[in-house]
From TrEMBL:
It comes from Muriicola jejuensis. This is Sigma-70 family RNA polymerase sigma factor. Belongs to the sigma-70 factor family. ECF subfamily. Residues 21-87 form the RNA polymerase sigma-70 region domain. One of its GO terms (molecular function) is sigma factor activity. One of its GO terms (biological process) is DNA-templated transcription initiation. Keywords: Sigma factor, Transcription, Transcription regulation. It comes from the Bacteria. PANTHER family: RNA POLYMERASE ECF-TYPE SIGMA FACTO, RNA POLYMERASE SIGMA-70 FACTOR ECF SUBFAMILY. InterPro entries: RNA_pol_sigma-70-like (IPR039425), RNA_pol_sigma-70_dom (IPR014284), RNA_pol_sigma70_r2 (IPR007627), RNA_pol_sigma70_r4_t2 (IPR013249), RNA_pol_sigma_r2 (IPR013325), RNA_pol_sigma_r3/r4-like (IPR013324), WH-like_DNA-bd_sf (IPR036388). Residues 114-162 form the RNA polymerase sigma factor 70 region 4 type domain.
Length: 176
């Protein structure tokens, strides 16, 4: 069945179509949830919540642009909204004159190890790191998504990078 038909069936509430949609996109969206979650169980909860939102809002997809991109945006927003509700985003605004850029070469790092280190970051740092480094959001966009200032976004990114750098040093992993 083509994607357009599948979406239209989901809009009508067809459970089999929803199941097909889940099977088709759950792996990709689970990977995205893993980036923003503290552990696998939390990622599974976030995936579940995201699909509930997707099914609820699928009638808002306008068949313009990438459907997968739309799903990813819904997923990220669902996860971020959950963290905002849980008060994880209460941060103290700090004045950072200039973002300290730390360049890393992760050639010696297993992806699973790096993911584990990112997941261990405090929530405000993990979310900012993922949005900026992995998903390409600007500090302005991040501040709007998380309800913080751009200075706080820059500070959180800098601290996330420093924490990751320290974890890698402790494990004797080469970083540039």
């Amino acid at each position: 069945m083509d994607l357009k038909k599948l979406i239209h069936r989901c809009i009508k509430g067809d459970r089999k179509a929803q199941e097909q949609l889940y099977r088709k996109y759950s792996a990709v969206l689970f990977g995205l949830c893993l980036k923003y979650s503290r552990n696998k169980m939390e990622a599974e909860d976030n995936l579940h919540d995201s699909f509930l939102t997707i099914y609820d809002k699928i009638d808002q997809f306008e068949f313009k642009g990438s459907f997968e991109g739309w799903l990813k945006r819904i997923t990220v927003n669902t996860v971020l909204q959950k963290y905002r509700k849980e008060q994880y985003m209460n941060v103290v605004s700090e004045n950072i004159k200039e973002e300290e850029e730390l360049e890393y070469e992760y050639a010696d790092v297993q992806l699973s190890t790096l993911l584990q280190y990112v997941q261990e970051l405090p929530t405000k740092y993990r979310l900012t790191f993922n949005l900026y480094v992995l998903d390409g959001y600007t500090h302005k966009e991040i501040s709007e998504l998380l309800g913080t200032s751009t200075g706080t976004s820059k500070s959180n990114l800098s601290r996330a990078k420093m924490i990751l750098k320290e974890k890698l040093k402790k494990e004797n992993i080469n970083i540039a």
